[in-house]
Design a protein that fits this description.
The chain is of the alpha/beta class. Helices cover 43% and strands 9% of the residues. The protein has helices at residues 45-50, 52-55, 95-99, 112-124, 140-152, 158-164, 168-175, 193-202, 219-239, 268-274, 279-292, 295-312, 318-333, 366-373, 406-413, 425-440, 462-475, 497-511, 517-537, 550-558, 561-566, 576-592, and strands spanning 104-106, 131-136, 176-181, 205-208, 245-249, 260-262, 339-344, 346-348, 379-381, 387-388, 422-424, 449-452, 460-461, 492-494, 545-547.
């Protein structure tokens, strides 16, 4: 069902001021020929100064297969006959030859995905040129500090640290170039004209992985990052003199509320819906609203508008909508650029490289795992037979009291656990490298798109996921401060938010003896927060979608035996029980908890 929304758009002078590349560079203004309604003409300097957040064509493919009920089909791989036998090509894609001597420009450089991508390139192609890393920073000094603390000192680069010893830092600084900037600012926030000209002259490959991934975020902020930012990256790419390929990291969840098998090319029904979506009008709406609303009301109103606009066009939240709009901008504005789109679902810890179980941050499944292991998560809302598809890249920040007991906060993340269709991070990176090499040498004028997902070929259902949780924490429990083991029970599944609230309240009473008025008010605020955000995720609870990945499967067919060994990306080979129990959860305990409780 498509929900209509009526918004009062204030009459406000339309500012024809583009966020264009600053004239510090030697090349001509790349936006001079853009039509008046370009997304980049929507964000005025006055708006950016007022708003603190601002600072800080699809092909058709008919795949009618549906997932209509709970049956054996829910746990059976969906694979076409021509892909059941995946034979290696004797010639291969030519990954090694393509990577030789290449120079890269990577956005989202301090993020999990970018770090593993950079580490892989450095390890497998020692003769690469340079890697320019766009780091959000106001100046070079701040960028270098972030580069050292978040990249050079990152444990993901331990192979290179061991290889170069005392020369490690010097080597990293000679090959990785931190670039101070901000994708949401004019000229990508790059103030150094010489640096910009070097990028234009030298870069062979652009990997655009930066994104605002807040499901419940401000509509204006998420449009600036995921839509306007993507457009600005395209304009930079058009000026790069030796660019082989522009890789855009999107998300599998551009399917919106579609159920069934979601192909890499959108079905006609989704095309028809998106044909009514005017990207420029959406940006103008956000600009006008933020310009006229009282500052105290802007944040909440922008969240409400984002959800309403997403539901209008058949999306669960404004993050999904913004990523779909980002893809639309690419198809509309790329010109003759060699562009490829990869769509991961939810990315979790590494399977093998740079070492098993590496992960950063307490983001998607990690809070659920930690809460469950501490005996604080007795249940969640959803169908235990729903298929998962995990590949951890995108995450959902939660605004709850971090000082309170984690029980309440972590219940929220249970909403995500059924829809995050899963793939280990290093398999995603390997697929990206293979896609990049294949299309970096191609003259195909189209925009190849790859779903980097697992649900169609190696499905994981919620029940089995939590069975693995239970297996791990039963055999290796966390312990209380007094040294006693923390018992865990099998996960309970409920079918409504009301029942979830009851479980939360019951857990509060069971785990706290504080009945003071201040404690009651605090618990009430937490429950209200959980309910508010839970409603944002409600469409996910029983969502039945699988992501078709036949382009990825065909790519595996084209790889040589050597390439498959060097860049393993076949998710069929992942043993989910082993991965969750013996790799992912131990990785969470080591890298996320930092000081994991002793095992008995």
């Amino acid at each position: 069902m498509i929900h209509s929304v009526s918004l009062q758009i204030p009459t406000f002078p339309y500012h024809d001021v583009a966020l264009r590349f600053a004239p510090c560079c030697t090349y001509s203004n790349p936006l001079a020929s853009l039509r008046r309604s370009s997304p980049l003409k929507m964000w005025t300097r006055a708006h950016r100064e007022k708003d603190p957040v601002s600072r800080g064509a699809f092909g058709s493919q008919n795949l009618p297969q549906k997932i209509t009920g709970l049956s054996a089909a829910m746990t059976t791989p969906v694979v076409s006959d021509d892909l059941k036998s995946v034979q290696a090509s004797s010639d291969g894609i030519g990954i090694t030859d393509f990577l030789e001597g290449k120079t890269y420009f990577v956005t989202g450089a301090t993020g999990l995905l970018a770090k593993v991508f950079v580490e892989k390139i450095m390890r497998m192609s020692p003769n690469f040129g340079k890697i320019y890393l766009l780091i959000r920073a106001e100046d070079d000094e701040i960028a270098i500090k972030r580069f050292i603390s978040e990249i050079i000192e990152c444990e993901a680069f331990q192979h290179h640290r061991q290889k170069f010893g005392d020369q490690y830092k010097k080597f990293m600084l000679s090959k990785l170039i931190p670039v101070a900037g901000d994708i949401m600012e004019p000229n990508l926030g790059i103030k150094d004209a010489e640096m910009m000209n070097r990028i234009i002259e030298e870069v062979d490959v652009i990997v655009h992985s930066a994104a605002d991934t807040d499901f419940d975020g401000r509509y204006d902020a998420i449009l600036r990052m995921n839509v306007v930012g993507t457009h600005q990256m395209l304009e930079l790419a058009k000026n790069c003199k030796k660019l082989h390929v522009f890789m855009h990291v999107s998300t599998a969840f551009v399917n919106g509320t579609t159920n069934g098998l979601f192909p890499e090319e959108l079905q006609e029904s989704r095309q028809a819906m998106l044909s009514m979506l005017d990207v420029d009008a959406e940006i103008k709406l956000a600009v006008d609203l933020t310009a006229t609303l009282p500052e105290s009301k802007v944040s909440q109103k922008m969240r409400e508008v984002g959800l309403a606009r997403a539901q209008t066009y058949g999306f669960k939240n404004c993050y999904e909508l913004s990523k779909a709009m980002g893809e639309m901008v690419i198809h509309r504005s790329r010109g003759q650029l060699p562009v490829v789109i990869v769509r991961p679902s939810v990315v979790e810890s590494t399977y093998q490289e740079p070492f098993p179980g590496w992960i950063e941050g307490n983001k998607v499944l990690e809070p659920v795992i930690i809460s469950y292991g501490k005996g604080q998560l007795p249940g969640l809302v959803g169908n235990p037979e729903v298929v998962l598809d995990i590949v951890r890249v995108h995450f959902v920040p939660v605004r709850l009291d971090m000082k309170s007991r984690t029980l309440n906060r972590l219940f929220l993340f249970s909403f995500l656990s059924f829809v995050f269709l899963q793939i280990p991070l290093d398999l995603l990176v390997n697929a990206m490298v293979a896609v990049m090499a294949k299309h970096g040498k191609s003259t195909n004028p189209g925009v190849p798109t790859y779903n980097i997902t697992s649900s169609a070929v190696n499905p994981l259902i919620v029940f089995n996921l939590f069975k693995s949780f239970h297996t791990h924490f039963t055999s290796a429990p966390l312990v209380h401060a007094n040294g006693t083991s923390i018992p865990v029970e099998e996960m309970k599944f409920v079918d409504s938010i009301d029942k979830l609230q009851f479980l939360v309240e019951e857990g509060m009473l069971r785990n706290s003896s504080n009945t003071s008025e201040s404690s009651s008010r605090k618990n009430k605020r937490i429950i209200e927060g959980i309910t508010r955000i839970a409603r944002v995720y409600e469409p996910y609870l029983f969502n039945r979608v699988r992501f078709d990945n036949r382009n990825t499967e065909k790519l595996i067919q084209e790889m040589s035996v050597r390439e498959r060994l060097d860049y393993p990306m076949d998710v069929r080979r992942v043993d989910w029980e082993h991965y969750i129990t013996n790799i992912h959860i131990p990785g969470v305990r080591k890298h996320v908890m930092k000081k994991p409780m002793k095992m008995t």
